Amino acid sequence: MRSTLFVLLMICSLISVAQDCTPEALLKRPGVWKAGMGGSIHGVSAKDLLREKATLASIHKMIQANSTPQGCQFLYTNALTGFMPGTGRNWIADFYDYTIYVLPYLCDPASSDKTKSYTAVATATILNVNVNVLGSLNNLYAADLPEDEFRGYLKLAARPVWKDGYYLMSDRVTDATDPKHLSKETSILITYNDTLPFSYLTRKEYLALIKKRLEKSIKDNSSSKEYYNKYMNAINSWLVKPESELSKAAVCMWNDEEQFTGFVEEGTKGSFLAVKPNPSYYHKGLPRSTPQFINVLFRVTEGYPVMTINMDGIRKAVDLAALRNMLGVAPAKGASTTGQAKRPLLSNKTHKPI
């Protein structure tokens, strides 16, 4: 009996010995949710602040109830911003956002303890839920462009596609440096029905804007007048074309602008559509905290199971219909909130909350 008991104890002892750390083992470890740093809130009225916190708390509750981190930490933060002088005129709504950073558990190669692991502090796999701001347009707010805006328009890389009740803004590879670990981005815009918070500049509108800029350049650099004249001639030759041509959407090459030589076909590599805020899109008379459009941005670095598995779970947890139902509805005040944080500073590839 004693010998049997001894053998059993030896087996249990061997099983309990910690195994060397591996990505596969870490992926099986239950993850955790963690609120980001408490932080600042900029330019939001007291009443709107309560409503915006309530909206962000609802978004967090929706995702947390339907997504469980595995082998990682879900670090979540909020940022709330109201009127920002110099970034727009005639503000209709505040902009604010909710972000999840997928921070994987990693083995520590620098430690002599081969079982040791730690939580990453930076990631390129994130979820952004942006209310009343579209970052891909650098940035489209619920406001007119500022009077001193250099261009007088915003650059849209590709026309959004209306799909399943939402606009697909982008679904693309953003970094292919490592073919085994592609960085991908999917951006979805949730709006009132099939309307958009921006409108497309016609060729005529675009030509008027760049002609005005070119005239200023000639005035400021009279010695270069001959150089600029060839572009001015190209603009004037387009302005006499039929209205049927001038009423089309302006599609231009990214670096042409003042060096205008002509328009290109939509979809041409390196081209953009010129757009501007659309004030008629918005429902008027609502509190500035009211969601009027929502942009959901999924970014994931593929090739790492911990990233793809967890982002797949987050995608399933984001209820686009529930977000759409928030549009035009002033949220109730006083909902509990956690994880208020400063807007994280992000690099082009790796995103690190600070």
Q: Could you characterize the architecture of this molecule?
A:
The chain folds into 2 domains: 19-197 and 278-324, no CATH class; 203-277, no CATH class. Strands 1, 2, 3, 4, 5, 9, 10, 11 and 15 form a 9-stranded mixed sheet that branches. The longest helix is centred in the first third of the chain and has 19 residues, at 46-64. The protein is built from 8 helices and 15 strands. Helix 4 packs antiparallel against helix 5. The protein has helices spanning 2-16, 23-27, 46-64, 203-220, 225-239, 243-246, 305-317, 320-324, and strands spanning 32-35, 72-81, 95-107, 117-119, 126-131, 133-134, 140-141, 154-156, 161-163, 166-175, 183-190, 198-200, 251-253, 271-277, 294-301. 27% of the residues lie in helices and 24% in strands. The termini are far apart.
In short:
This protein has 354 residues and is α+β, with helices and mostly antiparallel strands. The protein has helices at residues 2-16, 23-27, 46-64, 203-220, 225-239, 243-246, 305-317, 320-324; strands at residues 32-35, 72-81, 95-107, 117-119, 126-131, 133-134, 140-141, 154-156, 161-163, 166-175, 183-190, 198-200, 251-253, 271-277, 294-301. Strands 1, 2, 3, 4, 5, 9, 10, 11 and 15 form a nine-stranded mixed sheet that branches.
Pick out the low-confidence regions.
1-17, 335-354
The structure class reads alpha+beta
The total beta strand count reads 15
- Please summarize the sheet with the most strands: 9 strands, mixed
Tags for this entry?
354 residues; alpha+beta; 2 domains; nine-stranded mixed β-sheet; four-stranded antiparallel β-sheet; 15 strands; 24% strand; disordered N terminus; disordered C terminus
